[in-house]
Design a protein that fits this description.
38% helix, Alpha-Beta Plaits, alpha+beta, 5-stranded antiparallel sheet, 562 residues, single chain, 8-stranded antiparallel sheet, Uridine Diphospho-n-acetylenolpyruvylglucosamine Reductase, domain 2, globular, Uridine Diphospho-n-acetylenolpyruvylglucosamine Reductase, domain 3
Length: 562
């Protein structure tokens, strides 16, 4: 069952009581805590394997790595940072020998307790040292990266050669890693046409719980390269979207394609969400945009409050730098100058689309069709500054994880068939209306974000902002100057509990509508919602691959978490 309750661990108190000293905290061992001698011995061997500087046990690191954007989990025992597949495999073998549980963390940008824990003593395997682009194979059109490579770094490496992956990252891609996105799944850049992170994967190199190394796709056979995914049963797909429950991702091979050299930007406004969603659905069905997304009035207001004029000026410079041609640069510049900051004002339900094609004629055709579709649904064209600036800064700062007034932020989402997005929105609005008094009591603000995905579904993402303190992960992730200027709010666990209850009710509501989810973690219905046959099959796979339930125990509802 999902677990979105507020379980706050007081790290200040833990420090005072010295419970964060590693020998006293211990390591989780086959359902029991190790004694101090065993724990100390394990960490010493881990330091010998990775180097002492790559085994973190200081209180600040333990606090940081026990958090995701939503909340802190149980205290972790240590953070291990392997450099490559061989070190990761050796780490897994050592953990298997000692019965120590492991959970993998990439960039830390998730919000569903996907790597945070429900019991203390798990060792976090941080993949950020494994950040290399291993091979760009222009002959076979694949790229292989270590799991800790960020989407921003991959994009920059490929852009120099005029290439990209079909799906090329979430908005948090300056921190979000390829391995993390493949484990949790993610959407945005390229996603409207080409799907989610998992859809671009060809092959993976997986370290199993016992330290064995498994290669998937065509690379599973002897003497073969990772050039084709579907060689027999789809083992690559088995390890996609598993939230790290089935193994540790070490390396990932993705498809390549030529980067589009022509693009156009479109923005429209609708009086209500039915028109917005109808237009998004038809744009998606016809495959007219590489990205198609929409906001409600609150998100537009929040962006207007958050962005400074200087931020827009910096973005404007990037628009010029990233334009595909002088003609395009001139067009983009004129569009932004005409729009000014009016693009943030007086909008109700805006829709934004980015069209990317190989030639101008294809762009012109798509733009004409989108305008006709939007007009039929009652939309009015407005300044297209938002998609221009976003495309020019695809992996900008993650300042959006804190509200413009210092508020805490948390989303919840569901992926619905194109025909069901409006019904899902209406159902979520009914939940908000039901809790109107509680929302007013705690000064909670609610909104929506929509993303079209893969040509056949829409991600409906309700959002919450409320007055509450932020955690170390927030402070470390946003820009220092941005955080310095924010109001510093007091801890507000009552408001957070109210948000948790509403998030859970929305997750239940979306599940009842048959929604699918990204980054399932421990927050959404999954194993318990499956029909008996697929549930039993998945549990059997977990038992074969991780018989002692030591790899991210309890995630996806697999194995005993407590």
């Amino acid at each position: 069952m999902p677990n979105q309750g507020v379980e706050r661990f007081d790290y200040c108190q833990l420090r005072r009581s010295k419970l964060l000293d590693i020998p006293l905290l211990g390591l989780w061992h086959n359902g029991r805590m190790n004694n101090a001698h065993q724990a100390t011995g394990f960490l010493q061997r881990l330091e010998s394997l990775l180097g002492a500087e790559h085994v973190l046990s200081d209180p600040d690191s333990l606090e940081l790595y026990a958090q995701d954007i939503w909340q802190a989990g149980a205290p972790v025992a240590a953070v291990a940072r392997p450099a490559d597949t061989s070190q990761m495999a050796a780490l897994a073998r050592l953990a298997a020998e000692q019965g120590v549980s492991l959970a993998v963390r990439g960039g830390g940008m998730s919000y569903t307790s996907g790597y945070t824990q429900t019991r203390p003593g798990v060792v976090i395997v941080c993949t950020r040292r494994m950040d290399a682009v291993l091979e760009i194979n222009t002959d076979d059109m694949t790229v292989t990266v270590q799991a800790g490579c960020t989407w921003a770094d991959l994009y920059q490496a490929l852009d120099k050669q005029g290439l990209r992956t079909p799906y090329w990252g979430p908005l948090s891609g300056r921190y979000a890693t390829v391995g993390g996105s493949v484990s949790q799944n993610s959407i945005f850049w390229g996603g409207t046409r080409y799907g989610s992170a998992a859809d671009s994967v060809v092959s993976m190199e997986i370290v199993l719980a016992n330290g064995d190394i498994l290669r998937t796709g065509s690379a599973a056979q002897q003497n073969a390269a990772p050039f084709f995914r579907h060689f027999g049963p789809d083992l690559t797909g088995l390890f996609c979207c598993d939230c790290g429950a089935l193994g540790l991702k070490a390396a990932i091979t993705l498809r390549l394609m030529p980067a589009a050299c022509e693009r156009a930007f479109l923005s429209f406004d609708f009086k209500s969400y039915p028109g917005l969603l109808s237009a998004m659905a038809e744009i998606t069905r016809q495959g007219l945009a590489s990205e198609c997304f929409g906001f409600d009035p609150l998100l537009t207001e929040m962006r207007a409050r958050r962005d400074s004029l200087m931020a827009d000026v910096r973005s404007f410079g990037n628009v010029l730098a990233t334009a595909g041609s002088l003609k395009q640069a001139a067009s983009d510049s004129i569009g932004i100058l005409r729009g000014g900051r009016r693009f943030m004002k007086d909008l109700a339900w805006p829709l934004h689309a980015i069209v990317e094609e190989r030639n101008p004629a294809a762009v012109t055709d798509a733009v004409q069709k989108i305008r006709a579709l939007v007009a039929a649904d009652g939309g009015a064209e407005v300044a297209n500054t938002v998609p221009r600036i976003m495309r020019a800064n695809p992996f900008g700062p993650v300042n959006n994880m804190i509200g413009p007034g210092g508020e805490r932020w948390a989303p919840v989402h569901g992926l619905l068939p194109l025909s069901q997005a409006e019904k899902a929105t209406t159902s979520v609005l009914a939940v908000f209306a039901k809790h109107e008094a509680r929302i007013a009591q705690f000064n909670i603000r609610t909104g929506f974000l929509y993303n079209a995905v893969a040509g056949y579904c829409i991600a409906v993402e309700p959002l919450f902002f409320w007055p509450d303190s932020v955690d170390a992960l927030h402070r470390r992730s946003v820009e220092a100057d941005f955080y310095r200027r924010l109001p510093k709010l007091e801890l507000n666990l009552e408001a957070r509990a109210a948000v948790a209850a509403m998030r859970q009710e929305i997750a239940d509501t979306l599940s009842a509508l048959g929604a699918a989810h990204l980054q399932i973690g421990r927050s959404y219905h999954f194993t318990g919602a499956l029909e008996p046959v697929p549930r039993q099959l998945l549990q059997a796979l977990k038992a074969v691959l991780d018989p002692e339930n030591r790899i991210n125990p309890g995630v996806l509802g697999l194995g005993a978490a407590s």
